[in-house]
Amino acid sequence: MSPLKRIAYFVSLPILLIIVWWALSFGSTNFFVPKPIELAQTLWSTWIGDRFFDDVLPSLGRLTVGLFFAIALGIVLGLLIGSTRWLRNLLEPLLEFFRAIPPPVLVPLLMLLIGINDGMKVAVIISGAIWPVLLNTVEGVRAVDSVLNDSCRSYGIAGFARIRYFVLPAVSPQIMAGVRQSLSIGLILMVISEMFASSSGLGFTIVQFQRNFAIPEMWSGIVVLGLIGLGLALIFQFVERRVLHWYHGLKEITHDS
Amino acid sequence: DTSAPAGSDALTPVTVGVIPIADTAPLYLGLDQGFFEDEGLDLTIETATGGAAIVPAVVSGDYQFGFSNLVSLMVANDKGLPLKVVNSAVASTGDVDSDFGAVIVKGDSPVETLADLDGKTVSGNSLNNIVDTVMRASIDRLGGDSSSISFVEIPFPDASAAVENGQVDAAFVVEPFVTAAIESGQRVISYGYADFDLNLDVAAYFSSAATVEGDTELVPKFQAAMKKSLEYAEANPDAVRAIIATYTKTPPEVLAKIVLPKFPTEFNVDAVTALGEAALKYGVVETAPDVSTFLP
Amino acid sequence: MRKQRSAAAGPKAKALGLGIGGIILFFLIWEAAPRLGLVSDRYLPPASEVLARLGQYLTEAAFWNDVADTMMSWALGLAIATVAAIVVGLIIGSSRFLRRATHTTIEFLRPIPSVALIPLAVLIFGTSIESTLLLVVYASFWQVLLQLLYGIADVDAVANDTAKSYGLGRLARVRYVIWPTALPYLMTGLRLAAAVALILAITAELIIGTPGLGKQIALTQAGGAISSMYALVLATGMIGVLINLAARIIEKRVLSWHPSVRGEVVL
Amino acid sequence: MLSVRGLQKIYKVPGGDVEAVRDLTFDLAEGELVCLVGPSGSGKTTLLKCISGLMEQTSGTVELNGSKVTGPPKSMAVVFQEYGRSLFPWMTVRANVELPLKNQKVPKAERAALVDAALKSVGLDHVPKSYPWQLSGGMQQRVAIARAVAYRPQVLLMDEPFAAVDAQTRADLEDLIRTIWKQLGVTILFVTHDIDESVYLGERVIVLSSSPTVVQEDLKIDLPAERDQLNTRALPRFMELRSHVYAEIQRAKLGPVTEQITAQRRAAQ
Amino acid sequence: MLSVRGLQKIYKVPGGDVEAVRDLTFDLAEGELVCLVGPSGSGKTTLLKCISGLMEQTSGTVELNGSKVTGPPKSMAVVFQEYGRSLFPWMTVRANVELPLKNQKVPKAERAALVDAALKSVGLDHVPKSYPWQLSGGMQQRVAIARAVAYRPQVLLMDEPFAAVDAQTRADLEDLIRTIWKQLGVTILFVTHDIDESVYLGERVIVLSSSPTVVQEDLKIDLPAERDQLNTRALPRFMELRSHVYAEIQRAKLGPVTEQITAQRRAAQ
Ligand SMILES: Nc1ncnc2c1ncn2[C@@H]1O[C@H](COP(=O)(O)OP(=O)(O)OP(=O)(O)O)[C@@H](O)[C@H]1O
Ligand SMILES: Nc1ncnc2c1ncn2[C@@H]1O[C@H](COP(=O)(O)OP(=O)(O)OP(=O)(O)O)[C@@H](O)[C@H]1O
Ligand SMILES: O=[N+]([O-])[O-]
Ligand SMILES: [Mg+2]
Ligand SMILES: [Mg+2]
Hints:
The complex is a heteropentamer, with one copy of chain A (257 residues), one copy of chain B (296 residues), one copy of chain C (267 residues) and two copies of chain D (269 residues). By secondary structure, chain C is mostly helical. Chain C has helices at residues 2-35, 47-58, 61-93, 96-109, 118-125, 129-153, 157-165, 170-208, 213-223, 226-254, 259-265. Chain C has a single domain (47-254), classed as MetI-like fold (Orthogonal Bundle). Chain C has eleven helices and no strands. Chain A: It is a multi-pass membrane protein.
């Protein structure tokens, strides 16, 4: 696909939606409803400059660390739990228990146990972003192809080699689905982690704007979140195409988006 | 409610969004005592944890009135949000040795006064708001340097634990956490609101410009009922404690000991002016409110 | 037949036993932590105290009303999100054009935290259940949608060709080929979304103040009733466990043919 | 009825193109039964996919009843070489066979009769409630055949449909195909690696060269229309024909192999 | 070396049990090449899975070199009937063949030589960088064979390994197997549906009955050790033997069919 077409696909719908939004908000005087032009100006004036280095970058740093551990832990635990039935039976109710606890009550507990520091915020990110990877990995491991599994066993491919050459690649399509979910959930939890015991960060700033009725600024913060999400998705897509190229060939998926 | 008697259909339905804390006890008492009904108002009280839900609900007209701290209302006024302060709500006790809001430190902390906090970490429930504004003002008044302090946000319920674990050096908390902190061996170094002004209006009831203009009868009725409610509450602390027990989950043994705030019927204009100036000084607002138009 | 059934009940009972064992282990650690002074029991009461408080709650009608309110928002929100995500997912997923055209927008919208939408929700819907629903639906919609899109991409090329060659149209292929293939992914999406929906239902109640467990949690937090707060959190977690149990039962039924389920029965 | 003209298919793969089929031209008359043989990897499956409209050719045309094939035509059934993957694991054997009929809105009773007959004809009337993954390889393949048979197509494309069944079953299935062909007048293109089978079954045998593929030979099978496993295979003409096809395949395989390798090496660079 | 005693396998499925194999007893001496034939669904794959320790039998024992098989023994390679699913789609052809050797820590240079030789011997030296899903069915099957060959196992189990390749390739591969067998002294159990193939390849042919399965016949193939495609197949003794096996299979298929159906019906109730 030509680069031009690619760009067209990339921006068409967003532009269309912005126009619709602009038309709808044209006569609105509602304080809470943002307007595209105002928002664009605010976006620039609010986030370019000191705030980028003081709030956005540290948040992104924590997000990166949190996502890394969430994904790594999710995969490792997922492989263990997915391939060991007794472990799954032992841990599943417990994990499901923690999965259902809302971050606003989990955060004070983590604060108590970990303290008020970046570690706590990273833990909050992990506590939410791990689940899609973990669940997808567990389900993927449970569903590996039986003939492939037999091939491995009959050639004595066991232990780490089995994970490395068979299980991990076999589950990678599902892991990727989980990772993609984790990226945006991690971002959401980055915001939530900064709503407590914080004094800086992207999430903290957005909440400050919200509380202080700086509504266009608040929306601009949300746009920044969206843009970060988009950036993560692009990086992800790049990685996914390389990791899953065999899968896309096998499934006859043509990618050119 | 829906099963109201035939005669009550003359009542105007009115919803007030509040935070379920001791500060809003007069409203509950007024409902209980029929003060609102007397004014022709069919009062419904809705609760939320903060402004995130109450302010939009008032702006959209879903609620006619809301409860908020004064600095938040100053910020809203500063940002041009069409909110109107309609009634006083709660104020400090007038006693620097006993108030409903306090700065606490660990029992064995070397910190004795606000001035000792320089360079330390202090928490408040919400930054760039009333709590840190009054603390900064008092610290600087006492010769400390508030700009050397790093403030962090910790909700009131979690602040005492943070102090105990050494995660912060001091924390601003309100009742019932003041009593709980003292009981657990922590110390109060300042009753923050009273330290700022003996009779500081901390919060207020507000409405939206659209509601105020839409029904000119409504606000006076609400104000009349509120006046009776606040007076009743001020005169009957036992009734206040009793009613608090009905809408909060504070354990009864704690509730018996907490310090109740004052429930004034009029704003202390000087204190509000000073608060506005402090908010300006510490960058919370860009212009201090014009108290003559800001207050009702 | 009878023999078979009791043989099947063996591992099931064992699984249940292990699961309960895991939970008991957790409670023991929780009990020990404050008792050994690792954390102060004023901030984290021992498990026994919280369990006792929960036991008390279980006898109160008001508690069950709150549970019912929360579960109502949860079920409605999850149902709306799931149906919407399935419809949107099947439409987008089976068209390359739509997949490409919506990619940017979806990736932009997904990381927007539901909690940031609370003022907007209240502005539009007031503090009624619709506000809670909006948040629940917004958060859980993406989980189902994304899983479904990946599930649709998993359709076997030969199976799809087979369906095409026998004249199965787009709709028939969705029903007979795409849907069953995507179902395992969808089930995972549903399990993810079910927890997120519960979290958002409770968070929305907590912040907006609509009745339910979340509001009670907020009240106990604000009132310093720490054991009650943890008892409610415990209740939330247990609801999560029950939801997962239900999801697993559904999964056993609808995915009996799938290697993940059949692999567990055979051998 | 079916006309393939100058068909070419190049697979685009990262690292170079693979020309699977270079130039194929042949016709099938209505109601003909033609067998297609050719070396492994010569593009038989590729050709079938193009004919059935499942894959777009790089150049050339496929016409069915005078109109170009652009998508899978109705009234065509395909038995895929990858029989295992072509059965739906979430459906029972019966449901797999029934699905295309259901989709065609064939009335329930008629459907049931067709499915029963088809399953019986492939010797699988005892496992309708099993799932494909509970069956042996040969049984799975027979389910795929039953599905095609029950569908009563006008055109039937079969890609090595008997590869996984035993000799006796294979003979039975061969006779089944001839019977269906005669009774229903269906046009059949049958890919096989079994030379005897191609001669026994077909009215014509098309031999493909190895990749890049062209038609190497189009052989008329002048055996009597009534065939049976014992007598037909013993006919001297049968022997002649099979030897001829065998020689052709050997030629196909040996001939352009070097050309093929150099071509693919070129493509890979 | 390999001894199967009273082997029984019952598949437990919801809705009843399927007795795939009832009672199998036979032995393979070290370095023997035995072919296994039997009707579709008679349990050949099931048997191979039990021998290779991939599946637990319901009763009976499998012993390899005097010790019970409980898991997949080292030095045994299996070529699966479902060749398509037995290759790793995320690895190139070369990586697929190389993996078991890599896992055995065979030095790199030796590994490369083994892989090259194996790929060449199955005629796939031109596609090492392709992925399995870019190959035709027959090519995939040959990759699976190459993987087993490169592994140099002591025991080789092959489940219809030539089902998807053309006649000429098949003949070549048959000779390849005999060569390897003779050169390396490997013990081979070879499942096939091609009767000629079983006779041409094997030193013995074991014929299974249809399900529930027993050994119906264990036939010694008294053909000369040196075999070649043209002459051996023309021997009168070859003809005799193939007719014999054919008759046995026919008997196997016709014989207990009714019994089988009633048994499965019973099980299904
Ligand atoms: N998806 C693909 N990508 C790249 N090359 C492919 C693809 N599919 C097939 N080929 C190549 O096209 C050629 C023809 O393949 P095809 O499957 O049509 O052969 P075939 O005649 O059916 O062989 P067989 O008898 O072994 O089934 C082969 O060289 C194969 O490698
Ligand atoms: N997973 C399973 N569950 C239930 N039944 C099974 C399962 N696998 C095989 N069977 C049954 O066991 C019997 C033997 O199957 P098996 O695959 O061993 O046959 P086979 O001899 O290899 O046949 P083919 O020559 O067709 O490959 C069949 O009746 C089959 O239906
Ligand atoms: O969407 N969330 O706020 O979790
Ligand atoms: Mg093919
Ligand atoms: Mg088999």
